[in-house]
Write a structure and sequence with these properties.
Number of helices: 18
Number of strands: 16
Strand order of the largest sheet: 1-2-3-4-5-6-8
Strand content: 15-25%
CATH class of the domain at 206-367: Alpha Beta
Oligomer: single chain
Radius of gyration: 23 Å
Length: 506
């Protein structure tokens, strides 16, 4: 039999956990060990393809994303579920892929970025547009000096040259061969302040990951989270008014919760105008030895869900997810050896997709609809989704066909007279994100197949300006990443502070 016949024969049985076992079975029948590149073209499951494919899928959201980890530093939190491994930032374990790489390189940001660019390039990825995810605990608790030096090293590594200052490195990156088109940091809602947000913008941050975990005051107290929902709302509004994209971390299966409560909290997260994340990472609670939650479990004071219960909760969360939110993750990639209770399966997204497919249901989140490797469709339709949020309105503009999302824009319309953190944003409508999906296209190139560089982003910007003008806004401000400033200059925007700004003519 050929590898094509073998994979097709076993497709229905394949999972992330057993794919290597099947590879050994196939090797015996073929007489040689099949490569990933021989296997993935015949797989059916999108998650398996993403893991097995050595090029393409990782960059099919339009950018080349990868994580860079900060060094271990004291964490202000006392959360009962959080593991602390010696020599690692709190909550991270040394055999998680990004953490493992960082520890080997002594948490050196330059070496981490340089190594990942080289690795991705060698496996065929285009790395012109880099989306960096800065991880490693509560960002705000690190010293400002360390944060500035860390970010300078990041830009130097992408630029391939060492600059004298962070500002010089950023200026070079505006027109560099490889450009940073997004940077996210992760922090606690109670560590978001005006000074911190201003520093983020100086560093080039465009997205923040907020560890919210639960939308119930009693559960937050029980897990010793150390903040309230008021602080979540305040942090969310401050970030949104600064134009930042917002990712929430949400933890089902916590002490004091229940499947019904988790589903109720998800509804609050998506429908309450104080909240509404642009991105979401769902991390079901795992009971790890050495944590306070582990001791609660040992005493019988905490009982994790059975796996089928958890799957039903996650399916319901996916069902509730609105079209303007992207579910980035559904479970942490933690080795089974650490987990004493709670699911340790890392392929839950795959399981959920299979069950939803059997039930004839579809998830509406951005990740499930983005075009990925599909081809450009000239019949795309412009859609506008508008909703209320604390301090203003949020509009989600998108180009879609019946099946796929090709491009989108997030537009913030602050309420009239709203106090703004940045002077340059007073009286402005704010573009928080513009994104064309599909396989990464090189900067300043265009072909007839890929969905990037087809003018969809420009068309969305024109529509956003039209809406802002009709609503009485005198100017438009874009939270541009350092590496996308040149794009907005071509649309008649100019740099004011850390934003690209354009006066809207009557």
């Amino acid at each position: 039999m050929t590898i094509k016949e073998l994979v097709k024969r076993d497709n229905e049985k394949l999972t992330l956990e057993n794919i290597e076992d099947f590879r050994l079975v196939w090797a015996k029948e073929l007489g040689h060990m099949p490569k990933n590149s021989e296997i993935w073209p015949f797989l059916l499951d999108p998650e398996l393809i993403e893991v097995m494919k050595t090029r393409g899928v990782r960059t099919e959201s339009g950018v080349a994303p990868f994580a860079v980890m900060m060094k271990p530093f004291p964490c202000p939190g006392k959360c009962i579920y959080c593991p602390l491994e010696e020599g690692m930032p709190k909550s991270y374990l040394s055999d998680e892929p990004a953490a493992q790489r960082a520890k080997i390189l002594d948490f050196d940001p330059y070496k981490q970025v340089e190594g990942r660019i080289r690795q991705m390039s060698e496996t065929g990825h285009i790395t012109d547009k880099i989306d960096l995810i800065v991880i490693g605990g509560t960002f705000g608790s690190y010293t400002e000096e360390y944060k500035r030096e860390f970010f300078k090293n990041i830009f130097d590594a992408v630029n391939g040259k060492v600059s004298e200052t962070l500002q010089e490195a950023q200026k070079y990156n505006e027109t560099a061969e490889k450009r940073i088109v997004g940077i996210s940091v992760e922090t606690r809602p109670d560590w978001v302040s005006e000074l911190e947000v201003k520093l983020w913008r100086e560093l080039g941050v465009t997205k923040v990951q907020l560890g919210v975990q639960a939308f119930d005051e009693e559960i937050l107290k029980k897990i010793k989270r150390g903040h309230s929902l008021d602080e979540v709302a305040r942090a969310t509004r401050m970030c949104r008014d600064a134009g930042l994209k917002i990712c929430y971390h949400f933890m089902p299966n916590l002490p004091g919760s229940s499947p019904e409560k988790d589903i109720e909290m998800a509804k609050i997260m998506f429908t309450d105008p104080r909240f509404g994340p642009d991105y979401l990472k769902v991390y079901p609670a795992m009971t790890i030895k050495g944590t306070e939650m582990y001791e609660m479990w040992k005493r019988g004071e905490y009982l994790p869900y059975e796996e089928d219960e958890l799957i039903e909760v996650l399916k319901e969360i996916k069902a509730q997810t609105p079209v303007w939110c992207r579910i980035d993750r559904l479970i942490r990639d933690i080795s089974k050896k650490w987990v004493s209770a709670g699911t340790a399966r890392t392929n839950l997204r795959q399981v959920l997709q299979q069950q939803l497919l059997k039930e004839g249901k579809k998830c509406k989140c951005i990740r499930c609809r983005e075009v990925r490797g599909g081809v450009y469709d000239t019949k795309v339709q412009l859609l506008v989704n508008e909703r209320e949020s604390l301090g203003g309105k949020e509009l989600f503009l998108s180009y879609e066909n019946e099946e796929n999302l090709f491009a989108m824009l997030r537009l913030r319309l602050p309420n009239e007279g709203e106090e703004m953190l940045f002077e340059k944003l007073k009286g402005a409508a704010i573009v928080r994100e513009v994104h064309a999906y599909g396989q990464v296209a090189e900067i300043d190139t265009r072909d007839g197949i890929k969905t990037q560089h087809r003018g969809l982003g420009k068309r969305l910007m024109i529509k956003a300006e039209e809406i802002a003008r009709e609503r009485g806004y005198k100017k438009m401000a874009v939270i541009s990443a350092i590496g996308t400033r040149e794009y907005y200059k071509k649309l008649s925007y100019s740099l004011e502070g850390t934003y690209m700004v354009k006066v809207l003519e009557d």
